[in-house]
Amino acid sequence: MRAAVMYGAGDVRVEDRPDPEIVEPNDATVRTLASCVCGSDLWPYASMPATDTGRPMGHEFLGVVEETGADVTALKTGDLVVAPFTYSDNTCDYCARGLHISCRNGGRYGFDGVDGGQGEAVRVPYAEGTLVKLPVAADADSALLPSLLALSDVMTTGHHGAVTAGVGRGDAVLVVGDGAVGLCAVIAAKRLGAERIVLAGRHEARTALGREFGATDVVAERGEEGVARIRELTGGVDKVIEAVGTRQALGTALGAVLDGGTISRLGVPQYEQGPIGPAEFMRNITLTGGASPARAYIEQLLPDVLDGRITPGRVFDETFTLDRTPDGYRAMADRQVLKALIRP
Amino acid sequence: MRAAVMYGAGDVRVEDRPDPEIVEPNDATVRTLASCVCGSDLWPYASMPATDTGRPMGHEFLGVVEETGADVTALKTGDLVVAPFTYSDNTCDYCARGLHISCRNGGRYGFDGVDGGQGEAVRVPYAEGTLVKLPVAADADSALLPSLLALSDVMTTGHHGAVTAGVGRGDAVLVVGDGAVGLCAVIAAKRLGAERIVLAGRHEARTALGREFGATDVVAERGEEGVARIRELTGGVDKVIEAVGTRQALGTALGAVLDGGTISRLGVPQYEQGPIGPAEFMRNITLTGGASPARAYIEQLLPDVLDGRITPGRVFDETFTLDRTPDGYRAMADRQVLKALIRP
Question: Into how many domains does chain B fold?
Answer without folding.
Answer: 2
